[in-house]
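Complex 477.
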Amino acid sequence: MLMRNVLIVASESMPFVKTGGLADVVGALAKSLPNEGIDVRVMIPKHARIKAEYQDQLETIATTTIYLGWREKYLGVQSMEKDGVLYYFIDNEDYFAGPVYRGDDAENEQYLYFCRAVCETLSLIDFDPDVIHLNDWHTGMIPLLLKTQYPGHFKKEIRTLFTIHNIEFQGKMGFPFVKDILGLPDWLNSPRFIEAGGCANMMKAALVYADRISTVSPNYANEIMLPYFGLGMEGMLRARRTDVSGILNGIDTQDFDPAADPAIEAPFSASDLNGKRACKRALRDEFSLDVNLQTPIVAMVTRLTSQKGLDLVKYALEELLSKDMAFILLGSGDKKYENFFHYIAAKYPGKSGVWIGYHEELAHRIYAGSDFFLMPSQFEPCGLSQMIAQRYGTLPIVRETGGLVDTVAPYNAYTGEGTGFAFSTFNAHDMMSAIGLALSVYRDKPTLRKLRKNAMLLDNSFRQSAVRYKALYQSMV
Ligand code: ADP
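Predicted structure with adenosine-5'-diphosphate bound:
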């Protein structure tokens, strides 16, 4: 059967609101699908954080009242077109006037409301999706609600695809809470359905009820079948193995384009790397590094959580800083890591630069001006930063896990090939030897140039992902 209509639902999407890679992926997928002949729409909450320039352009298309159990709640639906894609915004200031993620039960309620609101909005808009593409636990109750509370409700039978961007966050809460808010029957509170480890679990609900499941790299699709990575979901994933696929993310190659990036000091490309030197000089000066331009800069742009391998960095960084290298970090998150990096910045002022916070333009300047990008993740569903770094000729140094395996070809000293550096065991000494190898290749200019070129010429665009998603959608109807 021919399918054309896809509704992507997520908690965040570029260019409107972003706290991490999920927003990049949703925005880039939405932008790419029309070229594949798909009529795609996107639905996200109307977060207060949505950039003001867009808030002013939103048009209200419906307002109504919906029920969360016995509670009456406002539901507004607003929309705007961006890059040929129609975006819908679920408006309710009780839930979305504050942070994108409120934490704990407040966050659970935010997104239980969102799941209900999305189902109700399907009758309010002039769009009949063949497939609803759901993303991460915030949307996890939608397949269950559609199958158990809305059968025969819509013009078409709607199929659901659930994509796992990060299995660490599952949306766990007491069953009475979710029962009360969504009006669920008690029999759902069983390990066969939505219960896991004594809690109602929104990710589990999606894994049980979605027609298909995908995740964001082929390697991570295999890893999450194992307890270490599956974090309690491995049993259900193994049971549904034939419905699970891994589709590698890509990056928005327009947004991240060293040849035409307004955020960086000078443009450059694989065939003319001169501008990269100017970017490095500007970055060095911006962070007041007291090193010459021959000194390699190793950088990180990251959420500060243990997932990103920051315990290894904490262990090794002072020793690394005794070598001829400088270190730059942009990130925010766990206080223990923020404090550590404040300490590093204070103790090694000329050799380290630290910016705690979220800053998109600065991220571009770091990708462009650094020599190496460190990403020693404990686990990494796909990872975008290493692909962005490669596009800017900044060689990633990664741990071999998840999508990092699918996207970084480790330097091979015998063939001279590669697009970065890798180590396999989650161990600070192994990380340090991978960094040591990178620093020695840095001094071998012909090899360095070759690896940079290899990295910059990789096709990490979202087009390839969009083609694969289209094939998956088509196999579902
Ligand atoms: P994750 O989604 O797990 O955070 P990814 O590598 O998939 O990791 O995507 C992270 C994205 O967020 C990249 O585009 C990265 O540049 C960006 N990012 C992370 N931290 C910051 C920050 N502090 N400031 C600006 N951009 C950031």
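The chain has 19 helices and 18 strands.
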